[in-house]
Amino acid sequence: QLLLSKSDGAILTRSSKFDPMKFRELLVMAIIMHDLPFQFVEYAGIRQLFNYVCADIKLVSRNTAKADVLSLYNREKSKLKEILGSVPGRKRILNFSFMPPPHSGVALYEWVKLEKLSKFLKVFYDVTCLFSGTKYPTANLYFPQVFVVEDTLRKAKVDSDSFMKSMATQMMEKFDKYWKEYSLILAIAVILDPRYKIQFVEFCYKRLYGYNSEEMTKVRDMLFSLFDLYFRIYSSSESVSGTSSASNGARSHVDDMVSKECLDVMKEFDNFESEEFTTSAQKTQLQLYLDEPKIDRKTKLNVLDFWKVNQFRYPELSILARDLLSIPISTVASESAFSVGGRVLDQYRSALKPENVEALVCTRDWIFGE
Q1: What does the DSSP 8-state code read for residue 182?
Q2: Is the bond preceding 137 in cis, omega lying within 30 degrees of 0?
Q3: Cβ neighbours of residue 6 under 8 Å, at least 6 residues apart?
Q4: Does 93 score more than 50 pLDDT?
Q5: By C-alpha distance, which of 136, 27, 69 is closest to 362?
Q6: For 33-86, how does the pLDDT look when each residue is reduced to its tens digit (9 = 90+)?
Q7: 3-class secondary-structure state, position 200
Q8: Side-chain-side CA neighbours of residue 187 (13 Å)
Q9: Which one of 20, 95, 197, 259 has the minimum C-beta count within 10 Å?
Q10: Cβ 150 vs Cβ 179: under 8 Å
Q11: How are beta strands 10-15 and 2-7 bridged, if at all?
Q12: Which of 326, 142, 306, 315 is nearest to 227 (CA)?
């Protein structure tokens, strides 16, 4: 049997036989296109509608619909990989066509300007990608990147090219509005990167403000003050417990041998010795780290792993490093995650697995994205 259908004014014939696979494919397309929950296929009204259209239809469950979405996602992903793999190079994507005079192309000196402009803007592109990415960069990356931006703008402001000079001047006004004063905390964060340490901050401030600048003094004072605070907080409990255990051990041996007055004097001596030790250790722990040679700057280093490995060597300093390096330098990653989640996860779809969310978002973009 054949059915007649009208499409764009033409009369077409199609088989009246129901294709269950085509039905499931169209059902999955509808779920993806309209952000429908997987539970949609189990709605009583929808099932009645399907049974009315075809009494022999085999109804699918939400798990089957979920599996079909993942299957479609994998097929479209394979197609995309095949298409991208068939493109030999980026230049093949562009099509060049001859344009008659008076427009005869870009002059050589204009290409030189474009190349210069491209290198200038690449600095800002790289910093934006780093700060606005979804990998949550550690705080030690803030200071070097912001310094490179400011240094690039300062050089461009004195460029012989009037266009570059004008553009850099306007950009410098925006930079000064938001980033003119470097964050002291984030400046200390780069000091806690063993590839840079305090020498890098001194190098940067020397170029920006000259020798023995007030800004460098603030960073140094803040560094030692912050470490002093952490040392007092995190070493006090250990010192008290150590002193207590030592006193208890001593008391078990000498309680019967010395008077109470003598023990009181010994306790005062223990406290005095502990304070002196605290003061000396407080100075040497941070200074020991700063005095050690830097690690090669080109070394690929996970700075959090470095402090985890050295936590017993620098107990209080490692805690300070952990707290400072974990400060987010941008909220873009978290805001982006919540924004995407709000479009996919709603009151009807609030318990999707990560792989199902990925399949829904990517497949919709590949098939229905404009």
Answers
A1: P
A2: no
A3: 12
A4: no
A5: 69
A6: 888 888 888 888 888 888 888 877 888 888 888 898 889 888 888 887 787 777
A7: helix
A8: 24
A9: 95
A10: yes
A11: antiparallel
A12: 315
Backbone φ and ψ for 233, nearest 5 degrees, come out as -70, -45
Q: Token digits for 172?
A: 């410098």
CA distance 63 to 352: 11
Q: Which tokens in the block code for residue 217?
A: 């003094």
H helices, E strands: number in the chain: 14, 2
Angle at 316 between CA 315 and CA 322, to 5 degrees: 95
Longest dimension (CA), the chain: 115
The amino acid occupying position 57 is I
Please, what's the b/e burial string for 216-252 (b: 16 or more CB within 10 A of its CB; e: otherwise)? beebeeebeebbeebbeeebeeebeeeeeeeeeeeee
**Per-domain residue ranges of the chain:** 2-88+353-368, 138-329
Contact between residue 304 and residue 138 where contact means Cβ atoms under 8 Å apart:
yes
Nearest to 325 by CA among 179, 137, 129, 145: 137
Kindly report the pTM of this predicted structure. 0.53
Angle between the N-to-C axes of helices 142-157 and 162-179, in degrees from 0 to 180, rounded to the nearest 10: 140
Query: Contact 5/12 with Cβ under 8 angstroms?
Result: yes
Which amino acid would we find at residue 322?
Answer: R
Length of the chain: 370
Token pair in block for residue 60: 């699918």
| First-residue to last-residue Cα distance in the chain | 39
The single-letter DSSP state of residue 296 is P
- Residue-level pLDDT at 370: 46
Report CA dihedral (173, 177, 182, 185) to the nearest 10 degrees: -160
